[in-house]
Amino acid sequence: MTDTVDKSPAPSVPPEQIKAIPVRHWGRWVSGVLVLAVLAMIGIAFSNAKINYGVIPDYIFDPDIVSGAWTTLYISVLAMVLGVVLGVVLAVMRLSSNPVTSTVAWCYIWLFRGTPVLVQLLLWYNISLVFPVLNLGFYKNEMNDVMTPILTALLGLGLNEAAYMSEIVRAGIQSVDEGQTEASHALGMTQGKTLRRVILPQAMRVIVPPTGNEFINMLKTSSLAYAVQLPELIKNSTDISSTSLAVVEMYFVACIWYLFLTTIFSIVQYYVERRFARGSTRTLPPTPLERLRKNLRLFVSFRRPEVAR
What is the pTM of this model? Predict the structure, then answer.
């Protein structure tokens, strides 16, 4: 007799469960402890410093401080608008095939990026020493009467910002594929129309983020207008400190206002960048508010339901 071979399938044995042992990152604990220790030392140092913290809330909404903050915001917006408009013009000139306009734009950028903003402000403030009278043919006046502190700050900050904005705009224009220009010209569009309707809208995705950073930096750079007697936040804080003798405390007040302004415009910048990023990504990442709502929903769903009595 021949033995019959059992061809029934062998019983399946479930695989053994993997025991994952997490790697211990001792360096993270050590660095975390060191950072907390440094922060604690800084906190102890400031708590023991000769600073009257009770004075700070009294001056946050002082009329002179609020007026200085408004002037800071006002001159920053005007200088930024001037810088953006002139920066676009300079970027187009820089990319032009005309050697004269391209060279003039390059020299402008080289000059204003190569000299300090404070020096430029002081030159505009003392320009009456070189040109005592402003004579435009249709307008004539003493230069001291024309160059007010706010006009000096606007020219010094705005013209300097234009040099940086021109490079940002130029980088954005060059980031657009050349095929877009060729296709526009094939459709019969002129160079200017192609720039306005095809190139710049696509370049905004690259231009907007550094422009937002430049404006936030402008809010802080405007403090240099203190040197030309513009009554902005730093000058008004310094004037108050000279009478109240709360020097460091008034600088803290100014810092609080600068942090408030930069925080507001950082939030605005985030949503503007998000809007212009719609054409480059299929799904946008959730906003901080959306993430907060999601975490709250998860928290509510994980709560233990109450037992009915």
Answer: 0.79
Length of the chain: 309
- Which H or E run includes 133? strand 133-135
Distance CA 98, CA 106 (A): 12
Distance from C-alpha of 196 to C-alpha of 183, rounded to nearest angstrom:
14
Contact assessment for residue 199 and residue 173, using Cβ atoms and an 8 Å cutoff: yes
Residue with tokens 């990504």: 281
Q: Which amino acid is at 197?
A: R
Report d(CA 247, CA 241) in Å as an integer. Answer: 5
The token pair at 207 is 């231009």
CA 58 centroid distance within chain: 30
Instruction: Mark 155-166 as b/e (b = at least 16 C-beta within 10 Å).
Output: bbbbbbbbbbbb
Q: What is the pLDDT of residue 307?
A: 47
Name the helix (H) or strand (E) containing 134: strand 133-135
Q: What is the pLDDT of residue 309?
A: 45
69's tokens: 């903050």
How far is it, in rounded angstroms, from Cα 278 to Cα 93?
30
* CA dihedral over 227, 222, 252, 63, signed as positive or negative: positive
pLDDT averaged per 10 residues in sequence order, the chain, 309 residues: 57 70 78 92 86 86 92 94 93 89 93 93 91 83 87 94 92 82 80 79 82 91 91 91 86 93 89 73 67 71 53
